Amino acid sequence: MIVFGQSRFRSTSQAALAQPSGLRMPQRLGVLLLTVLALAVRAKADLFVNCARGSDAANCAVSTPCKSLQRALAKAQLLQPTTIQVASDGVCVETSSIAIANAANAAIVGPAVFRFSAPSRGFIVQASVVSLRDLTVIGAALAVNATNSALTITRCNFIEGERAIVAIATAGPPVSLTVESSTFQRVSSSHVLPAFIRCCCRTLAH
């Protein structure tokens, strides 16, 4: 569940204004600084996707969600932390890969189901910090392909594909890949590459 920043902005500002008038100037400056820091932490873009009932002409707000994750990614300002919530209504049918590039800290959060048309790849992550949480990925030839990225996969299910996750480094720092509480079912190769991995996952019987 996503907490809206506006309500937090309001309560923080009111708390700052409610300080006793007897505070000295350094104390007032300290309160102001803490308020500014709190606002900066909360000032990330939260976008919403509903593949069943959304519209790509919408603005990806909670009341007017986008229909596709691609549209939300195009709208997102990925140079700042961004959370995209994908609703559990229906199945997101994808005819092409979903590309995420140069993201400072992007989180794609379900629960949601993505069905890819074979032999397309699923998520292609390049030079980014990305978290995938509570997603089910079906049918992609390669579910997640990450290059020069820090990737965290939590509570995801990979079903009916050739390969689940491949992470490679061609330049810069080593690839960071964490896989937790995720499953692989009817995947020809459920190996996770490379060796620099923290993994807590299981493979279901074919």
In terms of topology, how is this protein built?
Elements: H1 5-17, H2 25-42, E1 45-49, H3 69-75, E2 82-86, E3 92-94, E4 98-101, E5 106-116, E6 121-126, E7 129-138, E8 142-147, E9 150-154, E10 157-168, E11 176-193, E12 197-203
Parallel strand pairs: 1-2, 2-5, 3-5, 4-6, 5-7, 6-8, 7-9, 7-10, 8-10, 9-11, 10-11, 11-12
Helix pairs in contact: 1-2
Question: How much of the polypeptide forms β-strand, as a percent range?
Answer: 35-45%
Helix proportion: 10-25%
Mean pLDDT across every amino acid position: 75
Query: What series of H and E elements makes up the topology?
Result: HHEHEEEEEEEEEEE
Please provide the count of β strands: 12
Shape: globular
**Number of helices, counting only DSSP H or I runs of 4 residues or more:** 3
Q: Describe the largest sheet.
A: 12 strands, parallel
Low-confidence stretches: 1-21, 25-45, 195-206
The first-to-last residue Cα distance is 33 Å
Radius of gyration: 20 Å
Structural class given helices, strands, pairing?
alpha/beta
Tell me about this structure.
Helix 3 (69-75) links the parallel strand 1 (45-49) and strand 2. 18% of the residues lie in helices and 45% in strands. The two termini are 33 Å apart. Strands 1, 2, 3, 4, 5, 6, 7, 8, 9, 10, 11 and 12 form a twelve-stranded parallel beta sheet that branches. Helix 1 (5-17) runs antiparallel to helix 2 (25-42). It has 206 residues and is of the alpha/beta class.
